[in-house]
Amino acid sequence: METGMLVLDEAQTRATLPWAELIEAIAAMFVGGCVMPVRHHHDMHVPGEENATLLLMPAWVPGRYAGVKMVSVFPGNAKRALPAIFGTYLLSSGATGEMLAVIDGGELTARRTAATSALAARYLARPDAAELLVCGTGRLSLNLLQAHTAIRPIKRIHIWGRNPAGAEKVAAEARELGLAAEAVFDIEAAARTADIVSCGTLSSEPLICGAWLKPGAHLDLVGGFKPSMRETDDEAIRRASVFVDTRAGAMKEAGDIVQPLGSGVLNEGAIKAELAELVCGTRGGRSAEGEITLFKSVGAALEDLAGAILAYETVTGGK
To answer: Which residues form a coiled coil (predicted)?
Structure first.
């Protein structure tokens, strides 16, 4: 390959991050020697609408690779028929600082987020989980249903969204991929029968009630990334065994964790494990067939770095 900086657009990024390989790359990074400073999180005023958010997420593996992702989240883009999230990933050499690649951050984020949920579900969802409910119709939804079907024998996929047309669109896209998906309009009914409920929304109010979850269900919460955002209620916290991607991130940024901690519904010691502990085997995941499990993810910079390295090495054949 010619020398020079690699640039991967959305389609190229997608092609270099197949689910099985990406899930394994993230698992390896969780137990590897990645350095991950606390990410920068800034509110940005947008006149006449809800504030936007700027996220800067650095991480590095000493001597190998360093990277940073810049992401903007503009909730008001829904009214403009634009994606809420835009981002770019910059990958550099961890030995020299040389810029190696610029990778589409939106596609990287969507795929690594879904792959991380699937990695968690490997330890937390029942092995025979066959019915999946995906809540949300944004970019994450199609990725979530693909990632979960990569690690569990999913036979039925239901998609719910506030916009029924959006749910129908995602279901049609899933069917084009050969997946048995259909839009649903009664979120409670769908949640009551689901083996896995995966939420990827920007909701500030609970969508899933804990009372709806059947014994053995796994609840995957990936949308909320601020203390003010919430996708489930206190009853879900009370009924479930709670797991997080990282304690540092979830206890600071995730409303589904921060709010119950603040009210006393949840205490820090009741968080069973973070993802690195599950992957390393130092703490266990699901322990009983009828146990309800809950996984809250806010995203970790090491996940992006793992995906960026995989994409770069897939194209260049480098190590």
So the answer is: none
Q: How far apart are CA 69 and CA 306, in angstroms?
A: 12
**Cα-based torsion angle of the residue sequence 244, 245, 247, 251 in order, rounded to the nearest 10 degrees:** -70
Fold of 6-108+302-316: ornithine cyclodeaminase, domain 1 (3.30.1780)
Give the residue carrying structure tokens 């014994």: 215
Q: Model confidence over 90-125: pLDDT tens digits? A: 999 999 999 999 999 989 999 999 999 999 999 999
pTM of the model: 0.91
Tokens representing 40?
């920068």
Q: What is the pLDDT of residues 14-43, one digit of tens each?
A: 999 999 999 999 999 998 889 998 888 899
Distances (CA, A) of 83 to 69, 94, 199: 17, 32, 17
pLDDT at site 3 = 52
Q: Which helix (H) or strand (E) holds 43?
A: strand 40-44
Pick the CATH number of 126-299 from 3.90.1720.10, 3.90.249.10, 3.40.50.720, 1.20.1070.10: 3.40.50.720
- Work out the percent of the chain whose per-residue pLDDT is above 70: 99
Which tokens in the block code for residue 131? 């019915």
Residue 37: helix, strand or coil by DSSP?
coil
Q: Which two tokens stand for residue 142?
A: 């199609």
**Rounded distance, CA 214 to CA 218, Å?**
9
Contact 241, 123 (CB under 8 A): no
CA distances from 48 to 41, 76, 78, 159, 205 (A): 21, 9, 14, 31, 22
Question: What confidence category does residue 218 fall into, taking pLDDT thresholds of 50, 70 and 90?
Answer: very high
